[in-house]
Amino acid sequence: MKGIILSGGHGTRLRPLTNVTSKQLLPVYNKPMIFYPLETLLKAGIKEIMIIVAPDHCGDYMRVLGSGRDFGAGVRFTYEIQDEPKGIAQSFLIAENFLDDGDNATLILGDNIFEHDFTNDIQNFKSGGLVFAREVEDPERFGVLEFDQNGKVISVEEKPKVPKSNFAQVGIYVFDGRVLEAAKSVTPSARGELEITDVADWYLKKGELVAKPIQGFWADAGTLETLHRASVWARERANLS
Question: Residue 147: inside a domain, yes or no?
């Protein structure tokens, strides 16, 4: 299993904080935001990790994270540039050479912070597509998963105006070695982006998409409000440890 952290973008919703640095390098209480998704992958035993960054901040990431050796034996980081953000599914195209051996891959967004432990799900993953869901009050802001009465995914849709459920697809995704084929089949949406929901739908149409619920705290820390909420949670967590 290989890991990818998507940490590009412009962080426009966090300006002026992001006028001089990347969103994912902003502090969340006592460490940079990117440490949280990175720790999620490392905890699951993933040691080969590609970090996709915006061109303006590549050097900053290398200074903060280095080669990976400070994070444990055998940990190795690779860096790639995302010249222009064109959707989450673009991550797999950028990482094509990194994934060319057909390994399974876990993609996590650099601004998503989870309390949930994904270790068993990732380590026991065999094939197909695995995504994760959380019930939210504003599903129109997310990819929306629709389930049948048995909990099986029957549709996945990106930021629908009329959501079919309140279940959001959160920012961590596990796919098998066919994910490059799936990503290459995706065409830009009306928003001009390569949507991760279309990759998930590729697996759904083959009857190979599974969605599991997450527990505990979750923040998509891309706004001032959610960044603050994540920092409060991280402070409380640190004080309990």
Answer: no
Digit-coded pLDDT (tens) for 61-90: 999 999 999 999 999 999 999 988 899 999
Are the C-beta atoms of 199 and 183 separated by less than 8 Å?
yes
**How far, in Å, CA of 135 to CA of 189, rounded?**
24
Residue pair 54/22 in contact by the 8 Å Cβ criterion: yes
Tokens of 168: 């959001």
**Cβ atoms of 179 and 99 closer than 8 Å:** yes
Q: How confident is the model at residue 100 (pLDDT cuts 50, 70, 90)?
A: confident
- Cis amide prior to 188 (ω within 30 degrees): no
Average pLDDT over residues 197-205: 97
Give residue for tokens 């129109």.
140
In a domain, 156, yes or no: no
Quick check: 204 and 156 in contact, CB under 8 A?
Answer: yes
Overall number of domains in the chain: 1
pLDDT at 11 exceeding the cut of 70: no
CATH, residue 119: 3.90.550.10
Tell me what pLDDT residue 203 has: 98
- Tell me which residue of 129, 142, 212, 222 sits closest to 176, measured CA to CA: 129
